[in-house]
Amino acid sequence: MEHLLEEFLNYLAVERGLSKNTIAAYGTDLEHFIGRMEKIGITDINKIKRQDITGYMLYLKDSGIGSNSISRALVAIKMFYRFLVQEHLAREDASGVIESPKLIRGLPDVLNVDEVDKLLAGPDLRDDTGIRDKAALELMYASGMRVSEIVELTREGVNLDVGFIKCRGKGDKERVVPIGKKAKEAVVRYIEKARPHFIKGKDIPQLFVSRLGRKVSRQTFWKMIKKYTKLARIKKEITPHTLRHSFATHLLEHGADLRVVQEMLGHSDISTTQLYTHIDRTRLKSIHKQFHPRA
User: Fold this and answer.
1) pTM score of the predicted model
2) Residues acting as catalytic residues
3) Which of 18, 73, 169, 237 is the most buried (most CB within 10 A)?
4) Long-range contacts of 277-283 (CB under 8 A, 24+ apart)
């Protein structure tokens, strides 16, 4: 069954154009599924029955696996079978009548505007690294970029005359997002004052560069966020994605259209963006409970 999995993953990369991270997640889930089937003596894809897949779901649950992870595993199995049947590599779709439970998605932490201000005030602008960090934080909050996108953002992808950035998101899809005055000022300062000291005359396409003259890694951005969260004395669990969540939430709170926010975030499905309307409703309920005399 391993060679079938390999063909499926190639299909996801070449024909579906999914990101490396997404393909790796499908691969991990399906390797685990195939390994379990082999452990119970099933080595032929056509010998797997619906009850075997249901049994696998129960096995995951009994192993203490969370509902989100179980749902994701079933989605991977369903996609795998759909591909196999389509390519005549399996006789029937054994997962066909098994219902996919909806993912139970927790509401992500978001920063309020005051917390964002404190976080963005953290970098020391007397230092080249501080200038770079300030530009990165301002840009992440101004654009809602994923950390994977800001790592790969190129110098050419930033149009400071017009005030837009061009980045590549999941599935290698390109989108253009406007940035505001504060982010533009921070990026200009970084490009003019700090970046030349980092690149030392080298031709590096990525906008954000380390002191060693290499593109900044995801881990560096994670450490950066942790550092300035601590400086700002923010008690919430903050990640680079928190700025993306805060970007979307604050836009919707101030009346932005959901479809526009979807486009700026690069979501292919608007139901993903609708998560932020739930955050906003939760905030409104909290305010109502706090201030209404009969709440």
Assistant:
1) 0.60
2) 146, 170, 241, 244, 267, 276
3) 73
4) 277/252, 278/107, 279/107, 279/108, 279/110, 279/245, 279/249, 280/249, 280/252, 280/253, 282/107, 283/253
